[in-house]
Amino acid sequence: MTCPYDVLLSRLQSAFDHVVVGADPVLRPSDRGDYQANGIMALAKSQGMAPREMAQRVLDVLDLSGVAEVEVAGPGFLNLTLTSEYLDETLRALLDDERLGVATLTPRTAVIDYSAPNVAKEMHVGHLRSTVIGDALARIYRFRGYSVVARSHVGDWGTPFGMLIEHLVDLGEATAMAALSIGDLDGFYRAARVKFESDEDFRERSRQRVVSLQGGDPETRRLWQILVDESVAYFAEVYSALDVTLTPDDVVGESYYNDMLDAVVTDLDAAGLLVESAGALCVFPEGFTNREGEPLPLIVKKSDEGFGYAATDLAAIRDRVDHLHADELLYVVGAPQSQHFEMVFAVARAAGWLPAALRCEHVAFGNVLGPDRKMFKTRSGETIKLIDLLDEATERAEAALVQRSQDLSPEQRHQLATQIARAAIKYADLSNDRQRDYVFDLERMIAFEGDTGPYLQYAHARLRSIFRRLGTAWDPRAARFSLGADAERDLARGLIAFPEAVDAAMATLHPHRLSGYLFELAQRFTTFYEACPVLSAPEPSRTERLALCDLTARTLRLGLSLLGIEAPEQM
């Protein structure tokens, strides 16, 4: 089925083109109608015409018969009110539509780069936003029909691994494996770092081990692989605990691109883009300067003959375009890396490795802050582990459930508490504009009231409880949507806007566009539920209102699933 928003916008575009070719209307929600058409004032100004006169011209050629009633309003807007017949037809179509009006797009391939922890280090709060935002986008893209290739570009190469391998050798494999297998990656790393900084012999052995690693020494590579495998297994446990769709097969580290780096340098040189500067091999992409106005280099090969992050990122682009045949490349990485990615993309395009038609975007995000509005850390100044955040949220959710209900077994309560904890953490992130910082306040996040994940889960559970209390069967196909009460119509307007919200989240790469819609829908339902009795209503209102409740529950469930949040049947 076609989304009402798309129907209105398509017909408005035809009317605008009939009046002035090339003008674009903008549809916004309106208090006076269901939608308001903007863009007429700018159009009128370009033609030297009064806005209301231009609005009337558009109205004279606008065909919305059977869809909406239209009136000229204010200084030159068009208010569009969907007809009762059209709402009835649209809602009844949704009753039989598992996708709730969201169209499947032409299949394309999107490579989404997200999470990206470092080998031999534990995942902490700094990985939260990349992991949660990236996973939500991956779910949305898959739902729309894309083939999604997830990539967790882990740090698994470079100088620190000489130190880590030597520490593994000193401990002995059995002892090292025991420490790594219980997830104590940070302890292992810290111990290696202390030895590296205090023991000259260990430091020299570590440097030689780096040479062996980069030279392909089989035994060194075997020991390195132990560190990688144990770390990836640990990452998988964290992803499972958070209900994130990344798998070990999606982990493709820096080492994967190591054999491609020489070709990056050779081909950039052949293209005439490479410049030697202070002993390093660089590219100076157009439009990038430092504070003094001097051209800014992207260092591809350092003066010590080592390769920097830029070379690896360029190799990754070539691999994703040439071998994975990507149509879109998304990099869910913190905002401080914005200039780096802009320069990498510019160089890749200049080299001809990144086609102009291919969408390539840095999906930047802000920081997670503590209550003091500084970087979120423990009282002792240590970075907070992701798994510890989830454990604390689960404990708080379980305590809240003990106070709310005694009908759950301990096992059921713990399972539900885990679902609530995940929702609290994910939704707190995804309900914020990703480009802004936000304060991590677990007490507020876990609340069952307000703009929180648990509130939306509770709204869904309350809806499902209506159907458990029915007592008799009902036929949703018998529903006819007269929408006589204002609260009914308002809820209906929210329901048919679901495809628009999904489209907006995907087009802008801002999951909060979907989160905000779901919260607003839950509020509309609350208003409806307080104003319109459901089970005690006479027919045909009872069936109509049951159908509205069913659609609302399904919309909340599907929308939450696209954010990676479960919708429990009971709370």
Quick recap:
With 571 residues, this protein is of the alpha/beta class. The protein has helices spanning 4-19, 40-46, 51-61, 84-95, 128-143, 160-171, 173-181, 185-198, 200-215, 218-242, 261-270, 309-322, 338-350, 386-404, 410-430, 442-445, 453-468, 486-496, 498-508, 512-531, 541-562, and strands at residues 26-29, 35-38, 68-73, 77-82, 109-113, 147-151, 275-277, 280-283, 298-301, 328-332, 359-363, 368-369, 438-439. It folds into four domains: 4-82, Arginyl tRNA synthetase N-terminal domain (Gyrase A, domain 2, 2-Layer Sandwich), CATH 3.30.1360; 109-153 and 260-363, HUPs (Rossmann fold, 3-Layer(aba) Sandwich), CATH 3.40.50.620; 160-252, no CATH class; 428-562, Isoleucyl-tRNA Synthetase, Domain 1 (Orthogonal Bundle).
